[in-house]
């Protein structure tokens, strides 16, 4: 679909018609501001029900855009999820299926396959496509997709600030090193001054890029290290939230709350910058997370479990899209969407030619939040163990239903997550036919993407 056809589609919905008309008159393609958080759970925002974390700027995005209730990361850990966001392909297809370099369990029942420990150069990112279409492109923040020969500059970004092979910073405070260790500072983040906070610094860099490119289309991928460990916030915000923690509250971590607060402040500064430069209306902002929250840090309740797990707490994430020229304001979509959908969405709204990927464009939802995407299911494949306790699994969600297959013992579980968001009742026995049908779908999908499977471990030692 070309740009003109896209806006014609948006205009079909009466509620979106004024926006579509305005968008058709826009003199240039929309800017892209993609904000990706690390380990932010589904309930970690005010607009998603947090009873502690204060996020007025991000809540404003939801009020002025579309909030998704059933959005998913493409994996329950970071590197595969990020690869999927950038390329539109499932991690299983790329064979990048765990965080780099993964977790070793030499005595476990299964061994992981020989998976890929970098984002292959032949994979096309949305940054590469947009640069070919005249966009200025920048990556700011976490990369964690391989060693230097696979860093952002090799994947279509004109600028890389803060991105390298590591998945977390040694420290969130300048000079971004861990005292008393030989852990070097972030090599792609030069300069700085005493007292500087990493989340603020990355926001500063993002604003400077926007200011330099305000008169041309730009794509800014702001990939925060926050709110990943180490849990370090400014003392003023830790103190602020320590005084607000309720004994019976769901969220209890004041330092983590402070980290979220700094992210929200940064989002507010970005919104102010777009307004000041008069480019807000023509900028698509996407805000989301790379996987569910880490359970020892936050809680994902009412979702079950957390980061690394096959259950909803590991993969359901916040997702907000705001674009005054193209997204219905103040709307909510309950359509299941996932990380592979961002690549085709960005290409479509920017007028780039579509490419063959696993994801589907979310553009039809932008004008009609009640719309449904044309697919049978979305899938996950994790042939690894995770330090949080998860064992290798595969998952499929088809509308209200979700199947989980555990590879160690070929056990399956079935949940109707449409009305059992906490996955409290396994219906695999009661719904045997549906379970078998969904298992066949999952297995067919694995064959189609050539997913790598774990293998029996000859050195397996059963737990005592």
Overview of this protein structure:
- This protein starts with a helix and ends in an 8-residue tail after the last strand.
- The protein has 13 helices and 16 strands.
- The protein has 464 residues and is α/β, with parallel strands linked by helices.
- 28% of the residues lie in helices and 15% in strands.
- The chain is globular and about 60 Å long.
- Helix 7 (198-212) packs parallel to helix 9 and helix 8 (235-242) packs across helix 9 (254-276).
- The longest helix is centred in the middle third of the chain and has 23 residues, at 254-276.
- The chain has an 8-stranded mixed sheet, sandwiched between helices.
- 54% of the residues are buried.
Which class of secondary structure composition applies to the elements? alpha/beta
What separation lies between the terminal Cα atoms? 59 Å
Count of β-strands: 16
Apparent shape:
globular
Portion of residues in beta strands equals 15-25%
Q: Low-confidence parts lasting 5 or more residues at pLDDT below 50?
A: 1-26
Mean pLDDT: 93
The strand order across the widest sheet is 6-5-7-1-8-9-2-10
Major β-sheet annotation: 8 strands, mixed
Overall helicity: 25-40%
The tally of helices reads 13
Radius of gyration: 21 Å
Order of helices and strands: HHEHEEHHEHEEHEHHEHEEEHHEEEEHE
